[in-house]
Design goal:
By secondary structure, this protein is an alpha/beta fold. It has 27 helices and 28 strands. It folds into six domains: about 110 residues, LON domain-like (Archaeosine Trna-guanine Transglycosylase, Chain: A, domain 4, Roll); about 90 residues, no CATH class; about 55 residues, no CATH class; about 180 residues, 3-Layer(aba) Sandwich (Rossmann fold), CATH 3.40.50; about 80 residues, Helicase, Ruva Protein, domain 3; about 190 residues, Ribosomal Protein S5, domain 2 (2-Layer Sandwich), CATH 3.30.230.
Length: about 800
Amino acid sequence: MSIANLPIIVEDELFLYPFMITPIFLNDERNIKALDLALRDDSPVMIVCSKPSRGGEREFDSIYEYGVIGNVMRRVTMPDGRVKILFQGLNRGKIISAIDIDPLIAQVDTVILDEYDINRIKASLSVLKESVKSLSLLNHFFPPDLLRTIDDSNEASRVCDLVCSALHLKKDVAYNFFIQTDLEQKILDIIEYLNAQIETNKLQKEIKTKVSSRIDRANKEYFLKEQLKEIQRELGIDLDKEAQITQYKERLEAKREFMSEDAYKEINKNISKLSKMHTDSAESSMTSSYLDWALDMPFGSFSSKKLTVKDVQKELDKDHFGLIKPKSRIIEYFGLKELLHSRGLEDNKGAILCFVGPPGIGKTSLANSISNALKRELVRIALGGLEDVNELRGHRRTYIGAMPGRIVQGLIEAKSMNPVVVLDEIDKIARSYKGDPTAVLLEILDPEQNSKFRDYYLNFHIDLSKVIFIATANDASAIPAPLRDRMEFIWLNSYTPQEKFEIAKRYLWPNELKKHGLQSSEVMIKKDALNLLISDYTRESGVRNLRHRIADILRKSALEILNNQTQKIVITTKNLENYLDKKVFEIEIVSKKNEIGIANGLAWTAVGGDVLKIEALKIKGKGTMQITGQLGDVMKESATIAFSLVKSLIDKGEISIPKNLIQIDKEGEQKAVYDSYDLHIHVPEGATPKDGPSAGITMSVVIASILSDTPIYSNVAMTGEITLSGKVLPIGGLKEKLIAAYKAGVAKAIIPRKNYDRDLKDIPNQVLDNMEIIAVDTIVDVLKAALVK
């Protein structure tokens, strides 16, 4: 075919070759006009491709000048308005000049290949076919039928077109091969392209099989990263994972010099594991949580303030009134630490302090004062009812919802490796099938072991030797013995009424005013009203309930001021009951009348001391004894011992019996008074359990009084245990008991001699100045002091 004027059809999607018989869909108006023109004139048509950036335009500048000349074998109009044609390519064509643009008509010439050397072409074509076979082994570009066609064909131009059509080339690449008229060079260019594809496909195969690459390492790494990013985009995976891993590594390296080798290895191992995990997996989430906890550990972070005893003493005196002995012992403890620091010695072998005392006495607030003085964070760990050992040591990471133990969480919260840690209510630890938390506490509180404390969750050693541990307890006897051996107890006893008054005046009232947004000029409390509040509205050793009652007063006062009922409120003894619900009557004032068979005993309770009345009644009978009042085994034994001891004293004549109580038996002989009557001993308030080894002398006095019809001094109270031989044994809780006696208006207190010699120095002067303390050695001494002569 020579030069001719042909209609031009523009194809946006397909790149056609002369050998193809291809269905083409037309929806552009100009293309359909060109088609109709060709069919009308029964002439060939030329199909050209639009340029990549000009798709959709139908101008000569927007199309390639080379295309395929061929015939339209069939035309079909589709229901949606498109036109489908079956096109048969015949020759390459080139647009010489434009003739019309609606439709596109151009002068077209047939493209003829340059002359070539047949032998060189055959050799090049053989290499081309080998390259095609090699590439077909690596991908799916060449179906078996196409491979056979290529292998069987000796027409070089047709083979080139078949190969290019199979490779799905981009428009510009396909066009460059298409317009090449130098057949030998065209074959060589296609071979070069095939070889590049072969190398690329080999690299992909090597990646899949993890075989060492023969390609440059830098190129391979780049390819891997790019391919991984593409895969991640397709799967919708977070592309920030790499940045997260990098951040973890940076945080780890920043803390490496401050952590132990096993900690570094464990964290680094988990970072490496995370980098290989799919981000949507459950294990990936667990590992990320672990790394967040582990890298939040404040490795190398310590309070920089220098330890000084003066600061500790100043803070204790500022925050607490009284507590002279406890504060003195705390000062000694930190004085030793300061001395060791000043001499460059280790101080991690000291005892663990344990504050023991009734509720509200100030145990936790003492620890808070220590924390403030040392400028260290305070971490409070409540141990009451704790029974799961994993709460302290951490859960193993195999469990869902695993977390570090409370100790590790406390360090992270404090952001320091040397905070003050308060182990609150250590006497209330429980034990169950989940383990014994005491075993963990033994390791935590042992200075010889806690430098390598191991948390199950973190799975590496943590140095707790710089932490200051302070335990608190209400009852030291409830603390397991192994734990007691590791602690030094500082006993905090009950406050006297005067101490409570000073504490309320100096601390509680001003603090509560501030909390309630009130001024001291708006609400005032008289001294007598404050004393009445302490004596009649609270029942405690400490001041916690006193704080609550003050808060009650101030809440109602704030409401009055808010309602503009008054501008200034003064709390007096007369209007105090308007602000509080009811009186508690902590300790009943002792009777002024001496009575037979009623004695004042002194007892220790969890909220301080108490005056315990013990009553006895005799009924004609056969010498039996009944005991009521919900007493424990120890008090029942005390009553039995007291009964036997009083019988012995009556037999010896040391207790005289009035003649009117002496009875004659059937044989005319005198009966012992204790065989003539049945005794009933009762401790009032039977709903309250009572027990303890200090009621022996009180039981003895009551029994002696009722059997001898001798009154007991009403203003005398007593405490002490006895033996069958009549010796008075020492007791505990003397301070609380004497304070209770003082509150009840007792004039004389009978106590064991050993307590008199060793414990009176701990008794407040306010009590000693207003009460006579009588020391006794035997039950005879007790009876002389207690019974009215």
